[in-house]
Amino acid sequence: MRTMWKGSIQFGLVYIPIKLYTATENKDVRLRMLHKDCMSPINYTRTCSKCGKAVGNEDIIKGYEYAPDQFVPISEQEMNELQEDVDKHIEIINFVKLSEIDPIYYEKSYFIGPDSGNGLRAFSLLKQAIQDSDRIGIANIIIRSKQHLAAIRSFENGMLLETLYYPDEVRSMNEVPGLGDLSVNNAPKEMDIANQLIDQLTTEFKPDQYKDNYRLKLEKLIEDKVAGMPTERKKGKAPQQNVVDLLSALEASVKEAKPKPRRKTAARSKKTV
């Protein structure tokens, strides 16, 4: 597993050397853009929007557009100087309960691993202390020139760091159109059946039982094409009808969600005397 960040966790006056490793990976199947006539990849070049010339990486700088077509340049050195004092360690600011953080704030997960044998004892101490307290540490960290709020928590036999969105990065629910119409009174019978449907579909969360069916089908399609096998064209599904009678739709859903009765096994053969 490749290290993507190296530094330390500051726990009071204790500095714990650590490394971060990306905890998740994108399994999307990436398709290339090809020229239809010769089946070759399409290349894209960076060009200047004003003079139209192709621009190499050595001639590209960063800047901020503060007004239409008005930019102020920001150099890499200026950006590095802003974070030179805080990019090497993660300072735990305070501790909170995990249940107090709404999932909307979570962004990305990273495994935390010890960086050296000398820091293993302090690493183990922090992990155990967080686990025993049933709380998580809140900290700031800079990853790839961007500061993140982060949650540090005990996870299995190690620790996990999860970057969080800052409050001003989370949009207000009031911006969603149409929510003002939710003041309607729900019929008691409809609510009873809806709750019944939820009860029937409630189960223990087992991540292994969920699959990305579209990706698996796409991978199978690619394998068949590479092997020169013919691909089957499936008939499209019939368009779904709009729900007119909510109560009837809920009742049908409850009936559909009921566990199907097991088939009776064939009668056992009679015992011989």
From TrEMBL:
Domain Ku, first and last residues per copy: 52-181
Signal sequence, start to end: none
Gene Ontology MF: a single term: double-stranded DNA binding
Region (Disordered): 254-273
Composition skew (Basic residues), residue ranges: 260-273
UniProt cross-references to SMART domains, sorted A to Z: Ku78
Pfam families listed in its UniProt record: Ku
Similarity annotation: Belongs to the prokaryotic Ku family.
Function: With LigD forms a non-homologous end joining (NHEJ) DNA repair enzyme, which repairs dsDNA breaks with reduced fidelity. Binds linear dsDNA with 5'- and 3'- overhangs but not closed circular dsDNA nor ssDNA. Recruits and stimulates the ligase activity of LigD.
HAMAP family, alphabetized: Prokaryotic_Ku (MF_01875)
Quaternary structure note: Homodimer. Interacts with LigD.
Protein name: Non-homologous end joining protein Ku
Record organism: Sporolactobacillus laevolacticus DSM 442
Gene name per UniProt: ku
